[in-house]
Amino acid sequence: MPHFLMKGDNAPTGRVVVGSDLRHLPKTSVSLSIHQAEKNVSDGEGLYWTCDSTRELPIRLASEGYGAAKPRTLMECFSERVVSHPDLKALAYKKPGSSQWLAYSWQEYWDACCGFAKSLIAIGFAPRQCLSIMGWNAPPWLIAHFGGIFADGVPTGIYATNGPDATKYIIQHTQSAVAVVDTLEQVDKFNEVWKECPFLKYVVVYLEDVPAEVSRKSSDRIISWDAFMKLGGNVHDDELFFRMGKQTPGHCCSLIYTSGTTSFPKGVMVSHDNCVWTGYSGGAFLGLGPNDRIVSFLPLSHIAAQIIDIYGPLHFGTAVFFANPDALKGTLVDTLREARPTMFFAVPRVWEKIEEKMKAVGAATTGVKKAVAEWAKGVTRRSVKRVLLGGRDTAMGFTAANVLLGKAREAIGLDQCKVFYNGAAPIRISTVEYFMSLGMPICDAYGMSECTGPEVYAEPRHGAYKLGSIGRPMQGTELMIANPDGKGHGEICWRGRNVFMGYFKNPEATRSTVDANGFLHSGDLGYVDEDGFVFITGRIKELIITAGGENIPPVLIENVVKEELPFVSNCQLIGDQRRFLSILLCLRSEPDAEAQPTDTLPADTVQLLKKNGSKATTVSDARSCPVLHRLIAEGIQRANARAISRAQQIQKWRVLPTDFTQAGGELTPTMKLKRGVTAEKYCALVEEMYSTEEDAHPGGILASDVGGAQAKL
Asked: Which residue ranges does the record assign to the AMP-dependent synthetase/ligase domain (predicted)?
């Protein structure tokens, strides 16, 4: 039976408060895990936050429910898992170039983490010192992470795509004594780091052997994984266990560096309790257990991947299968087919890539087979909506349709998956509805590094799912809409045991994020409807204020445009201090071997253009194609019809020559748009749109590029 058909009572959610006067909110029921000195701290420092990774914070226990769970350290959780299921598969992986799956049991996983911790101790790694991990998802990433924690250290992940400057910043900011990387290519990023970071003792390489010449030139500071693991052979267990025992649930266990859309990233300090409590709460509502499987492919330096791939499995014994390093270049589905995950979490672009590939297969189908497939998808889409949104029975013919579509789910390795989640960015409604037609309702999960991952999520059952909403607050937390307007729209804030400790070495940023009542201010704007569902409307810092004084959230309008123009990949709304809104559009294109955009349009876009009389097959051709201009103009008209005011209607547009990418500097490692970078990069194009005195109108490209022809609304 599909998981969305499993009916049950509505689970309790977090408490919701809508209001701006914090003085009248009840204080959190706080049970201290340390002796808290009596003092009046007006800004919450020492009670709700700290910027010192050596300091312990009290655990804020609720009086009942999830928030009242006993605080524990990660070592306690890990050891309980080893005692209960020592031989159960914990981590499954393939060696580079091999097709054979190998595995660590929970006992072997624990032993390896202890071995890494002992090697750290052997090289003089001090308590509370930092280490950095940079590389593709693999067992050594997790082993180094927990090994650092076991040794009373503070590990931090660095995105594998970071350049030398961003890498050096984190190494310097944390003063990491050890860096763990996957390949020798990553080692090259440390050429400048060595000169300015004398505290960096070793760079450990885990996916490749280190040639003797490379090791010799570095004075043996560049070392292979196996060689490093041998360094701790003489460290006694008692010394390691002493370090483990010194730590409490309120101590910092890890740093998560934000992706940094406007400046260098901030180090988010999370405690043992943050990770233990959130990992348990997230896995419990998903119903995870020792028979479940997860595929690890999202960057482990991101909090979402850490909660799903690292901390959640500690509680429930879930097996983690590691995808190949080229997963996002096309091999992810191969891993999914072999691992058959029972829970799958992805970002919008991954869902969209799967959708594109499946649509391409469908487009090649003809005749009766195609008609039957369309019938099955229609019946399934209606059935999912009837069950999730209306609490009714499935549509007639659903059983037969579900059997037919089971083959499609099997083809992508998700036939045994119980729950499907999206996070990190909004997903198109059209993509959600497409997967609904396959019997795969995608739920949203919303959160941030500062709340150790999730805070709001939907569930695939009636009463806990609503299209367009990110879901309802997490159990054991309080969500507040601060400074609401007349419609109840305001800043989304929350507090609970998932809220971080503070920004490492950055009290100013911490004070502006965590208030004196312990509420984390997300910077996101939204509202809560009458059923308790949360809706995001934009970000405070991204608000566009037009020349007429209108406050406009760009993300909402950008999402509507992408819904109306499915051939658009990314876009950016322009209009701050301008007399009207315009938008920059990026067309979808086929990726190359490095997953970078090419000039080739995808098959569905080519088919759409051909159907409308165009022969364009490349982005370059499409940019000067009148047919594309007309389709865009029609789509923008539809988007404008959905605008809540005339001030929120788009008057001009331009199609860019290539898509936004991380390599191009427009996107962060978590695919967030760097609006300042794009505005500067395409400044001339933007100014051209606003320089003409004629009535506002959209134009696909510069008029001179098409002999003066421009589409008009």
From this structure: 79-504
Is domain 85-328 in CATH 3.30.505.50, yes or no? no
- Which residue in the block uniquely carries the two structure tokens 């191009």? 664
The topology (CATH level 3) of 543-706 is GMP Synthetase; Chain A, domain 3 (3.30.300)
Helix (H/G/I), strand (E/B), else coil: 646: helix
Given this model, what pLDDT does residue 19 score?
A: 53
pLDDT band at 705 (very low <50, low <70, confident <90, very high): very low
Q: Which helix (H) or strand (E) holds 332?
A: helix 332-339
Task: Supply the pLDDT for residue 363.
Answer: 80
Least confident of 127-131, 456-460, 484-488, 644-648: 644-648
**Within its chain, how far is the Cα of 671 from the centroid?**
9
Reported as type and span, the H/E element at residue 133 is strand 130-134
pTM, two decimals, is 0.85
Q: Are 660 and 559 a contacting pair, CB within 8 Å?
A: no
Does residue 694 contact residue 582 with C-beta atoms inside 8 Å?
no
The pair of three-digit structure tokens given for residue 194, joined into one six-digit string: 């060595």
Ranked by mean pLDDT, the top range of 274-288, 506-520, 697-711 is 506-520
Cβ count within 10 A of residue 619: 24
- 3-state class (DSSP) for residue 175: coil
Instruction: Tell me the two tokens of residue 552.
Output: 């406009």
Residue 481 DSSP label? E
179: β partners:
132, 203
Q: What is the mean pLDDT of the chain?
A: 88
Q: Where are the chain's structural domains?
A: 85-328, 543-706
Question: Do 85-328 and 543-706 share a fold?
Answer: no
Average pLDDT score over residue span 102-130: 98
Beta bridge partners of 203: 179, 222
Q: Which of 472, 471, 494 is nearest to 481 (CA)?
A: 494
Q: Is the pLDDT of residue 329 over 50?
A: yes
655 strand-pairing partners: 585
CB 441 within 8 A of CB 419: no
CA nearest to 471, candidates 444, 508, 500? 444
Q: Is 505 helix (H, G, I), strand (E, B) or coil?
A: coil
Distance CA 445, CA 213 (A): 48
Q: What is the DSSP string of 67-103?
A: GGSPP--HHHHHHHHHHH-TTSEEEEE--TT----EE
